[in-house]
Structure prediction request, 215 residues.
Amino acid sequence: MGSDLNITQELQDYILEHGHNLHPVQKEIIEYNTSLGDIKRMQISISQTQLLHLIIKVSNIKKVLEIGTFTGLSTLSMSLALPDDGKIIALDKNEQTNKVAINFFKKAKQDHKITTLIKPALESLVEIKEKFELIFIDADKGNYKEYYERSLSLLETSGLIIIDNVLWYGEVAKKNEHDKITKTIKNFNEFVSNDKRVEKTIIPLGDGMTICRKL
Ligand SMILES: C[S@@+](CC[C@H](N)C(=O)[O-])C[C@H]1O[C@@H](n2cnc3c(N)ncnc32)[C@H](O)[C@@H]1O
Prediction:
């Protein structure tokens, strides 16, 4: 049986050098996040920005919902792939990081495509009535199940839900006792794996992302 390559740092660097070029403002966000220290781990990886970009392009997606904006790297990466009349609604409860993100969106001349809603995502999700072609979930893990259910109802048929952090630093596959977040993610993965309303695959990029297509 064929198996996946073990991606060393060397190989990772090679992949990034030969992939899609980052926009200058994507680079600025990454530098800014690095200056924040450990919290940088919140942002998606560069390979994930490239995958999101490509998915949006090849699927001609125009409407995106994001749950978990932080300082804007994933939002901007998706926005740059959208056509000029494309639209992203980006949810996050943190006013401070949202201000930072909005400044980056303006700098990249993408702010006309992006609407940010600053409050607990579950509250925004009850108010949103329109449908989306792609929903990216990357916020508090304890609410993943609710985000997933609400996302399914806001998704067009054949639309995609992409969920980040599903491999949780590799913890989900370990046999030993798990902490609370690992248990929550394992239960969530089990649920999605058995969900007949979608077809899905787990991609081991970044911290692991599940891509679901609504049937
Ligand atoms: C992992 S970060 C998102 C990273 C972002 N996608 C990126 O690539 O930079 C998670 C974000 O979820 C937000 N968050 C956590 N709990 C939330 C909630 N209940 N409602 C809305 N946002 C929440 C945090 O403020 C944080 O900015």
Observations:
- Residues 9-214 form a domain with the Rossmann fold fold (CATH 3.40.50.150).
- Residues 42-44, 68-71, 73-74, 91-94, 97, 120-121, 138-140, 143 surround S-adenosylmethionine (CB under 6 Å).
- Residues 180-193 form the longest helix (14 residues).
